[in-house]
């Protein structure tokens, strides 16, 4: 049994639809292939579980796949909150450019402490002029914040972290073990993940995309957040199909609930930095003792080796670090950083994580040992940088009414419409039973 290692060959799925994101990089090609990876691995799982006599055909709609790399939900009669904090964005320094990511209050406070200025964009802009980009990046990170100086591709490839990431596999499989799959009589070729319990310990954005995808084929996804957690502007997009609960893992009673949930989980997906779960008392050995038969997939921002392995990061920051924003600047003939048109590193990594879960489940179904899968945004950036763009194609037109499903989704914030599904496995499209829900809106228990 061969575990997922890279993007699927184009001959393993059928492509429909037209349009392509305008970019220096093969963003639409990445969308097609990463979503197709989910379909190909799911088709193999259907065959491994004997839910069909052979692996069904996989179909990806290129237009819809591209649009799903953006925002999938359109509210009706109300507005989504802003995705970005007021001071998040790119700023010019003495010697270059830097990006601040300040959506979380403690990240915002860390940046302002270092800059020693008020929290208005004009004050931040003025303060930036007194700093060199690399030094400011280091100071903000040391203060517990997140920031990234813009580097060229050449600079990144010679940087110690860039070299470490380039040497890593796209999916790093480690610590193989025997996993006994729980019998799920409700699983069918149409809903092959029905009854699969997925414990989701992820935040913005790649991890939630992975678990949203698993929910779309029938998995019972339970996401656990700290009490009071929220992701304004994002959560309506990525809580689709999930139950959303809250637990404080520093409190004994909540820890007991969490351990009970983990013991009954079939899949654990988490996005904690290396060592973070260990700090909560849930290191790898403990997790395996509690849940010996749970498939595990995890991600981080900057890779699993090298000096930045434990650095916090987000898609927009990795684009700055890895030379993507600088290459986009040159391609666009701009004097400012030019990021990708969508957060493609997040979305592609999320779909690849879902595909890794499916690959591991198929291996277990065939009696093979199952390792833990590690992915990172930075390694996906290397994948994108080396991905060829297809022949000239028309630019992707903005979403139209016809791109959305006909039925209204009654989300936890109000009604809206969701983009039509981009993926079919056999005759069945990916589809969700539960609407998007607010953080902490559900009980911390498995259904049924």
TrEMBL record:
GO terms for molecular function: transferase activity. Keywords: Transferase. Residues 389-420 are annotated as: Disordered. SUPFAM superfamilies: CoA-transferase family III (CaiB/BaiF). This is CoA transferase. Pfam families: CoA_transf_3. Residues 389-402 have a biased composition (Low complexity). It comes from the Bacteria.
């Amino acid at each position: 049994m061969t575990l997922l290692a890279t993007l699927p060959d184009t001959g393993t799925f059928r492509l429909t639809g037209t349009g392509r994101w305008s970019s220096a990089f093969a963003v639409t090609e990445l969308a097609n292939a990463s979503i197709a990876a989910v379909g190909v691995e799911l088709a193999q799982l259907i065959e491994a579980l004997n839910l069909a006599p052979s692996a069904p055909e996989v179909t990806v709609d290129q237009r819809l796949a591209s649009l799903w790399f953006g925002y999938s939900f359109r509210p009706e009669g109300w507005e989504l909150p802003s995705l970005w904090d007021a001071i998040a964005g790119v700023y010019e320094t003495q010697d270059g450019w830097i990006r601040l990511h300040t959506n979380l209050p403690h990240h915002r406070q860390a940046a302002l402490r270092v800059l020693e200025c008020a929290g208005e964009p004009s004050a931040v802009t003025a303060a930036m002029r007194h700093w060199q980009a690399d030094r400011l990046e280091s100071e903000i990170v040391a203060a517990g914040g997140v920031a990234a100086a813009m580097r060229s591709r050449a600079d990144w490839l010679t940087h110690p972290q860039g070299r470490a990431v380039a040497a890593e596999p796209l999916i790093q499989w480690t610590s193989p073990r025997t996993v006994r799959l729980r019998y799920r009589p409700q699983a069918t070729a149409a809903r092959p993940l029905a009854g699969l319990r997925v414990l989701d310990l992820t935040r913005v954005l790649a991890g939630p995309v992975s678990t949203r995808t698993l929910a779309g084929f029938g998995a019972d996804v339970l996401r656990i957040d700290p009490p009071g957690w929220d992701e304004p502007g994002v959560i309506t997009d990525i809580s689709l199909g999930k139950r959303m609960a809250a637990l404080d893992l520093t409190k004994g009673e909540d820890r007991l609930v969490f351990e009970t949930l983990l013991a009954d989980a079939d899949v654990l997906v988490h996005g904690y930095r290396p060592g973070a779960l260990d700090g909560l008392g849930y290191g790898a050995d403990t997790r395996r003792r509690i849940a010996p038969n749970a498939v595990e997939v995890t991600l981080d921002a900057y890779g699993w080796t090298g000096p930045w392995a434990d650095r916090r990061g987000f898609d927009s920051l990795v684009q700055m670090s890895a030379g993507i924003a600088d290459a986009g600047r040159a391609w666009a003939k701009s004097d400012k950083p030019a990021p990708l048109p969508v957060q493609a590193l997040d979305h592609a990594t999320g779909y690849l994580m879902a595909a890794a879960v499916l690959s591991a489940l198929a291996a277990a179904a065939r009696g093979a040992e199952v390792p833990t899968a590690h992915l990172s945004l930075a390694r996906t950036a290397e994948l994108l940088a080396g991905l060829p763009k297809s022949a000239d194609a028309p630019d992707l037109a903005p979403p139209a009414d016809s791109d959305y499903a006909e039925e209204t989704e009654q989300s936890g914030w109000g009604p809206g419409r969701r983009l039509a599904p981009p993926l079919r496995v056999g005759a069945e499209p990916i589809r969700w039973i539960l609407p998007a829900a607010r953080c902490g809106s559900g009980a911390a228990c498995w259904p049924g």
